[in-house]
Amino acid sequence: MRIVVLTGAGISAESGVPTFRDADGLWEGHRVEDVATPEAYDHQPMVVQRFYDARRAALAAVEPNPAHAALARLEGHLGDDFLLVTQNIDDLHERAGSTRVTHMHGELLSALCRACGGRSPWADDLADLPPCPRCGVTELRPDVVWFGEIPYAMDAIQVALASADLFVSIGTSGAVYPAAGFVQLATAYGARTLELNLQPSEGTHHFAESRHGRAGELVPAWVDELLGS
Asked: Strands (DSSP E) along the chain, which ranges?
């Protein structure tokens, strides 16, 4: 069985990672336009750098939860027939043991050079304006896909969806495209679809089956069920 799993902010929220967008529409006190667009970076780069530096530093205080661990266990059984696509920019999937992870929205622990286009592993602050390890120019920015930019690995994700037997969405709002459209794409290719979410998402009606509750409970139970069958 070939499985593609999509994860969103809900799976990391149970580890204590803020879901970023508050009920009032602000992202940790900032407007989206102030910290998550190329224009914001051009206008006030240090505000953007410090915002992501704080989020990067906060990763040390959180740990993977049972949902992350269950997905790593599933990958261990399926190998190359499993792909985990995440909208999250944290490293909790990797710390839980997952290796077949595609970060479509980038990664906090990576820096992107605006001069040479190189991507480098990064754990320190970027507000200090360090040089690029590849070209030496001080043009590093967070390797995060901002609004108005194209997510990573879209072609590879579409290929995986085209050959999937099952598509599962975990902890997503169903509101952010292109990820919100994966369920319809998977359905068109003939895959079964399942939503595991705290509550019905905006795209629940597109799924053949939906289960609602905490990811830390739903995901391990689903993996046990799948492997048991």
From this structure: 3-7, 82-86, 101-103, 106-113, 119-121, 140-144, 166-170, 192-197, 209-212
